[in-house]
Amino acid sequence: MSSPRRGDSHEPAAESSSDDEADYSGGRLLAQADPSKALPTSSKARAKCRIAVLEDELETMKQERRGKQRKTTFYVAQGRAIRRLVVLYHSLEDLIAENDRRYEFHASVESTTEQDRLQRGYIELARVLPWMHGKLGELDQEDSEDMLKKARTRGDDTSSLKELVAAWVNQEFCPSPLIKPNEKHSRGFTSDICGKLLCPAEWDWEKSSVKAGIRDRTSEYIVSENSWPLLVYEGYKCNPDDLEEGFLKSKLLVLAFKAIFTSPSSAREAEGDGDGADILENNRRARRRSEQTKVKTCVASIINMRKVTPRAIAYVVCQVRFALSSVSSWRTVDGDFDYEVFWNNTVDFFEDAPGPATRRKVDKLLEWWTRKIFGTSHCEDLTPDVVSQMSVNALAEQRKKLEDAVFDSD
Question: What is the DSSP letter of 381?
Fold first, then answer.
């Protein structure tokens, strides 16, 4: 047996390369490839591809979840305006159904007072939240139901006003004992001051017989939604010969409206009625506010509210009336008093005026409210016709006429 030569090796031949070391150099491998079979690939490359696919799927899921969260947040934030500005008791489905009914039957449809109120509510919904009217026509049934469910969110105005109204009453009337901010058992007709504010306008709370009759709930003194309480009147007193004098102009209502729609802190601002002193004071307060830390966006800003509306006032009236009562949790009926009918009565005062004379008085009252809450800006009322009569355009027109006259004389 011959001895091994120099350079020969007794080590076994190297094993074939693993798929991590597959030959990708081209020609030879591709020439021998079986078209019915896959080419060898690297396990690391395959793993990287799978990881990349999973990461893409995960990012897509995160984006979908963020999109759903943004939708939910948007629907909830916008939906809080519905109870405050559109309808307090009926559901959105009721408003939509009434609008659909009228659309299907066109001019031939007959309607009741309640149905008319629902339709006005749908029109107000489309005005306050125009995006919702469009969405209802675009979304399928499941997505529409999901949107409406999220938009049913209620605010916490009842809880916050319980303390705020107590503070305002204590500050203005200094009752003895003071109204406790965190409990309601001592409010209602048990309290002299709350009783006065809740007392129907047609009765004199200062008479002992009236107090006793209301507190004992006799048949002669039934407190129901058919009477306007003194809390809605300016100065908390009314003129029996003109029940519209000072109606819905009370300080409590203005304070509560500001607390709900602008901010609780804005309820501490000066309460002018538009004279020069009020403008100066409001400017000073606005300057102080601008120097303070910015707070969360108020309801009015979220929904771009620039004017006070009838249904917003009706909502505030119900909330203040409830805050003064002794009932601890919100309910539709309090004894003989029905809040749903009371809300309807307030809305109908504005929306169901019997003629043009009362309509003008309603418009004037709404202007008063808008001035109280949002100031004296009337930019939205500057229509082209109004602007055409103002001095800038008037001067331009006079100059034009001058040039025309000179041209004609030449």
Answer: G
